[in-house]
Write a structure and sequence with these properties.
- The termini are close together.
- The chain folds into three domains: about 140 residues, Pleckstrin-homology domain (PH domain)/Phosphotyrosine-binding domain (PTB) (PH-domain like, Roll); about 375 residues, Protein-Tyrosine Phosphatase, Chain A; about 200 residues, 2-Layer Sandwich (Herpes Virus-1), CATH 3.30.40.
- α1 crosses α2, α8 packs antiparallel against α9 and α11 packs antiparallel against α12.
- The protein contains 25 helices and 20 strands.
- With about 750 residues, it is of the alpha+beta class.
- The structure holds zinc ion (2 copies).
- The site of one zinc ion has 8 residues, from α25.
């Protein structure tokens, strides 16, 4: 059952409580709960509450806000009543909590998050600050993986079933798309129980000519058993393979490993030469030799061309990000200090080195040569450059669906250590590194150069970034596929891909041109082309962003146009019917005689029938709507045919288009049907509220630049996507397609339908 959220007065404090309980209550029993119970439960779920906490304002000259700070089982919530602002911080997003030196006003507590929010609260009493600090430190990084948020998180019954999304992307399907297995590449079951390499997936794709002993031998000669395997097969038969460094030391050789590389060469009919890319700086690779590791010698591996890509290691990247954030977090930001900070962090230089490597790999593949990529263990830099090279080469990976498939393959299946790199639990802090963040940024830099080549928008990259760290979904938990199997995440947690599948409209770019999205895109890697990604690193500095996002405006305008078009079509039909009823065509210039002849049969469906279709399978409907509703028209439908793996099956994402209701069985427009006409006229918003002034959803969620602002197609008001989750057929629309409406409008329509609300 849906709670009566609208009945809570706007801006009322209870609303805050209600929302919190909506989440935590569902965590516990996932069942219908009454409002009274909600409030009751709510009071007991608050762990701590501190009054009169001031929030230090950094940019604006206005006085520090003062308000209560709540600590719940899942969030820290700060309420600034004066400015009607609420800040919710998920515990798993918190990266650090620091007690700063005491001030006359109280004890400052700085909270920084993995989503780059930085807030300093001044707690009046030292004692409170101390307690809060201890609690937060405990909660933001649990000791065991089973204590993570995803194991408690549960969606309401109106949302997806737990299994949705888990079967959306699998390695076999992805390789089938590339035409593998084929005569030269095959799938091996040698790793079925992770016996060859526990950080690789169960199914490995290797040259068909490679005998078992060669695979096993090579695996023993590679760090962590990560032998060379196929990750991408280009249409031109050039292969992209990945592995870890060889255990070569200064002189060790391995016949099987050398043979395996020969097999990789032979699988490519274009050329006998194989390019081996070591993504590390030369000096690091040489240092590894002393530890019995290292890199391939061209002398031992015939027909190979060897090169270093010079990407720094996880420790350099971690420090670089810390310096970048310091620059973003300057107390009194001055131009010189910021520019120096940005330069001194080296961040953009590192991003460039990743893109440089990816471009060079992509070009080599385009030219028909196969490439083998590794770094040390082959799960950080290797994933970065292999993933990025594929974005450049294959248009599919630039679509919404393909991009997710790429992450599922390159990062999840091949074992990027998300738990360690993101610091999900208490581990050695030296394991934490923004490797995946850098990759998302590298993709972002490329989208900036080729906006029409990407089906998805920046918001998708931000959502992925947030949820990699939020631990709300099981998708990014664990360090490899085996971890996720052992933790039984598919049974116990929700999938992030299922969530994305039901929110696709939010992530479509209005600039995408499928016709232009073909083949290899080669980004310009001149230093001047690199931008600072303000929307990620300074996302929460509300004063720094344009007040309106161009892409949101485009989407809103297009949706509004669609709605009005649809309505006009219906009105035309109505006028025509009325004329025929009166027996005299009204010559109002809106239509012509030709049309009149076409509709010589005066059929009209009672619209009630068309939208009173039982809302049986809410979930199914919702999925279909989400996918069917395409504010940008036709730009994703063909790519995203198989979208949602609900109950383990693939369903076709597109609803068949219903024909005009007037052509189907119906009845004459009769006396007394004036009500129907009024219903129709009232059901479509002629004017839509401008997104310009929109600061807050009626539910009091702030609508900052990062929030998707959605219009209710019936009343034209603006809501956050959470409030705009109902889909109905509007009587005033000719197409009878489902449109998004606010909950209030949903009730009106359902009521006028004399339908039982599905609540
Ligand atoms: Zn509405
Ligand atoms: Zn809302």
């Amino acid at each position: 059952m849906e709670q009566n959220v609208e009945s809570v007065p706007e801006g009322d404090n209870m609303w805050l409580f209600m929302r919190d309980v909506r989440e935590t209550m569902k965590d516990q029993n996932n069942k219908t709960v009454s409002k009274k119970l909600l409030i009751y439960v709510h009071l007991s779920t608050f762990l701590s509450q501190v009054e009169n906490v001031s929030l230090v304002e950094r940019f604006s000259s206005r006085r520090n806000a003062v308000g209560p700070l709540y600590l719940t089982a899942t969030h820290v919530i700060y309420v600034d009543h004066d400015n009607k602002r609420e800040t919710w911080i998920l515990h798993s997003h918190i990266s650090s909590v620091t007690k700063l030196p005491l001030t006359p006003q109280g004890s400052p507590l700085q909270v920084r998050t993995k989503t780059f929010l930085s807030m300093t609260f001044i707690i009046p009493k030292e004692r409170d600050a101390h307690d809060l600090h201890q609690l937060l430190v405990q909660m933001c990084q649990p000791e065991s993986i089973e204590a993570l948020y995803c194991f408690r998180y549960s969606q309401g019954i109106e949302d997806l079933p737990r299994e949705a999304g888990w079967s959306l992307f699998d390695l076999k399907t992805e390789f089938e798309r590339m035409g593998v297995p084929n005569e030269t590449w095959t799938m091996t079951l040698l790793n079925k129980e992770y016996e060859l390499c526990d950080t690789y997936p169960r199914y490995l794709y290797v040259p068909a000519s490679a005998p078992t002993n060669v695979l096993i031998g090579s695996s023993r000669f590679r760090s962590r058993g990560r032998l060379p395997v196929l990750t991408y097969l280009h249409q031109n038969k050039a292969a992209l393979c990945r592995c870890s460094q060889p255990l070569s030391g200064f002189s060790a050789r391995c016949v099987e490993d050398e043979n395996l590389l020969v097999c990789v060469q032979k699988a490519n009919p274009n050329t006998a030469q194989l390019v081996v890319v070591d993504t590390r700086p030369r000096i690091n690779a040489m240092a590894n030799r002393a530890a019995g590791k290292g890199y391939e010698s061209e002398a031992n591996y015939e027909n190979t061309r060897f090169m270093f890509a010079g990407i720094d290691n996880i420790h350099v990247m971690r420090q670089s990000l810390a310096r970048l954030l310091d620059a973003c977090d300057l107390k009194t930001p001055m131009m010189g200090a910021f520019i120096n900070g940005l330069e001194g962090s080296g961040w953009l230089r590192h991003i460039k080195s990743i893109i440089d490597a990816a471009v060079s790999i992509a070009k080599t593949l385009e030219d028909g040569s196969s490439v083998l990529v590794h770094c040390s263990d082959g799960w950080d830099r290797t994933a970065q450059v292999c993933g990025l090279a594929q974005v450049l080469i294959d248009p599919y990976y630039r679509t919404l669906h393909g991009f997710q498939a790429l992450i599922a393959k390159e990062w999840l299946a091949y074992g990027h250590k998300f738990t360690d790199r993101c610091g999900h639990i208490q581990i050695d802090p030296k394991e934490i590194s923004p490797v995946f963040t850098q990759w998302l940024e590298a993709v972002w830099q490329i989208t900036q150069q080729f906006p029409a080549a990407f089906q998805f928008n920046d918001r998708l990259l931000l959502a992925i970034h947030d949820h990699v760290h939020s631990c709300q979904f099981g998708t990014f938990i664990g360090n490899c596929q085996k971890d996720r199997v052992d933790l039984r995440l598919e049974e116990k947690t929700y999938s992030f891909w299922g969530y994305i599948a039901t929110h696709m409209n939010e992530y479509l770019s209005p600039l995408y041109k499928p016709d232009l999205n073909v083949g290899f895109i080669e980004p310009n890697v001149a230093p001047q082309t690199f931008k600072f990604w303000r929307e990620l690193y300074c996302r929460w500095e509300s004063g720094l962003h344009p007040r309106e996002s161009l892409s949101d405006l485009m989407v809103a305008a297009k949706s509004h146009l669609n709605s009005l078009d649809d309505h006009i079509r219906l009105l035309h039909k109505r006028i025509k019917l009325s004329e025929q009823k009166l027996g005299t065509p009204v010559n109002n210039g809106l239509h012509d005689n030709k049309n009149k002849k076409e509709s010589s049969v005066l059929y009209l469906t009672d619209n009630r029938l068309s939208y009173s279709k039982p809302l049986q399978n809410e979930v199914n409907l919702k999925l279909k709507h989400t996918i069917e509703y395409d504010p940008l028209m036709n730009n994703h439908v063909d790519v995203d045919k198989t979208v949602v793996g609900i109950d383990g099956h693939r369903t076709w994402g597109c609803l068949e288009e219903k024909g005009d209701s007037f052509d189907s069985d119906g009845q004459f427009l009769e006396d007394g049907n004036m009500d129907t006409l009024i219903d129709e006229l009232e059901s479509v918003a002629i004017e839509w509220k401008s997104v310009r002034g929109a600061k807050e959803c009626p539910c009091s969620t702030p609508l900052d630049f990062a929030t998707r602002k959605s219009h209710c197609w019936r009343c034209g008001e603006i809501y956050c996507s959470r409030c705009l989750d109902q889909w109905v057929t509007l009587p005033g629309h000719m197409s009878q397609k489902q449109s998004p409406v606010c909950r209030q409008c949903y009730r009106v329509i359902v009521k006028s339908n004399s339908l039982e609300s599905p609540e």
